[in-house]
Design brief:
Two copies of one chain form a homodimer. Chain A is built from nine helices and three strands, in the order H-E-H-H-E-E-H-H-H-H-H-H. With 221 residues, the first copy, chain A, is mainly α. Chain A is globular and about 55 Å long. The structure holds a DNA duplex (30 and 30 nucleotides).
Chain lengths: 221, 221
DNA sequence: ATGTCAAATAATATCGATATTTTGAGGAGA
DNA sequence: TCTCCTCAAAATATCGATATTATTTGACAT
């Protein structure tokens, strides 16, 4: 009998809502690396109870976006060049494995999915849409998810998120899009559709390493 | 002024205590795969409040030992041959990377650590000590931790735990120790001390694959 | 006899409050 | 003047209770 105030009604549970919002704030840098995350402060910011905030922070700990310190609460995960380079290294390693397995399982349903994801990403990119990030991730995950290796996919997804956090922190998404990544994505897509594992892997890793060099160069802080 | 009842006093926080105990119960199979984990039931079992139990389950979700279902609570992660094989695959991939990086950074301090861990493991194994598992994991992690890649190490540790869960579920620890793993460990250690990356990797992966075949054969259920 | 709907039951998710721990400041002693 | 101890203030961790949500039971209609 609480008057059904949730007219927006998007979130199923307060915990999940807090999780998504905090996650977005950390990924975009709105909550800067290393910042102390006080329950009370966040409780006010998200206007919800302390329990959902606390549980959301716990969940973010698994994603390595939040660190828990002894009995002293939580803080946003710190960043470092070392950490960034490790993320890049692991992504190259794991995504190569996943991509090869995906291509090994290739079928026409997967090809259809790839083409669609790529199309949606291009469309979102042209409109400068807010959901380009989501479409971009969906395309990259679609490249990998035909491997049918859920643990591996989970790790790739985690590392992907950690990486775009660095992209946001370095310069925001705009400068990233200045480079012609359309051509790079097209190359990856074409190779995957040709079931050319070696070529797809090369294009994909080049794609990541190029972004990596760009970000690394901006990170002399 | 609560009379200082915690004479055992090992646990720093109720949450962490609940986490460790639940983790152990899931790894050993005391809480079988797929079982519904009701808060009330666990609250009684660990005699603590509902909040620590809830938070511990959240943390275990990150370790992929517990699954969260919609708004219907938690359950112990299910097992399958597929899942086991994926764990084995990822371990081989990730541990090879970590081991090579560890050896590339080799120094005498690391060698000392390795020798000590190996000695402790052997000692615990001879006595049939309860803490053989801990020593075994410590040795394997010591092989990898000189890579100084914390994310990678974390993944390896997670996968290690998921793997010993299958070992417990298949037969308990006893039958595993029947095989002569001492020789295998010695080969790995010697190759690592020789800074022979290729040999160490071969012995390590053989070690895992042999265990994997043994467990796979027992898993026609 | 069976399928469907509704009420009862059980479990979860959330809230408000308390107790414990940590942090910081200020004062006493060296 | 510096160090260490004590006390106050703030934040966290935990508990008990409530409201919300799912599940089951049972009755009724088909």
């Amino acid at each position: 009998m609480d008057a059904m105030l949730d007219t927006e009604g998007k979130e199923t549970s307060a915990t999940h809502g807090a999780y998504r919002r905090l996650r977005a704030m950390i990924l975009t840098g709105e909550l800067p690396p290393g910042q102390k995350l006080k329950i009370e402060q966040l409780r006010g910011l998200l206007d919800t109870g302390a329990s959902p905030v606390r549980e959301a922070l716990s969940l973010l700990t698994s994603d390595m976006l939040v660190e828990r310190i002894d009995q002293r609460g939580f803080r946003a995960a710190p960043v470092s060049k070392c950490n960034f380079e490790e993320i890049l290294l692991l992504r190259c390693n794991l995504e190569e494995t996943a991509l090869r397995a995906s291509i090994a399982n290739a079928d026409s349903a997967w090809e259809d999915r790839l083409v669609l994801r790529h199309y949606h990403m291009k469309k979102a990119g042209q409109k400068g849409a807010h959901d380009f990030e989501d479409a971009h991730k969906a395309f990259h995950m679609a490249l990998l998810d035909n491997a049918r290796l859920p643990l591996l996919l989970r790790y790739c997804s985690q590392l992907y998120d950690l990486n775009i956090r660095y992209r946001y922190l370095a310069a925001g998404v705009s400068s990233y899009k200045k480079r012609d990544i359309n051509a790079e994505h097209q190359e990856i897509l074409d190779a995957a559709l040709d079931r050319d594992a070696e070529g797809a892997k090369r294009h994909l890793l080049d794609h990541y390493r190029r972004t990596g060099e760009y970000l690394s160069s901006q990170m002399e802080s």
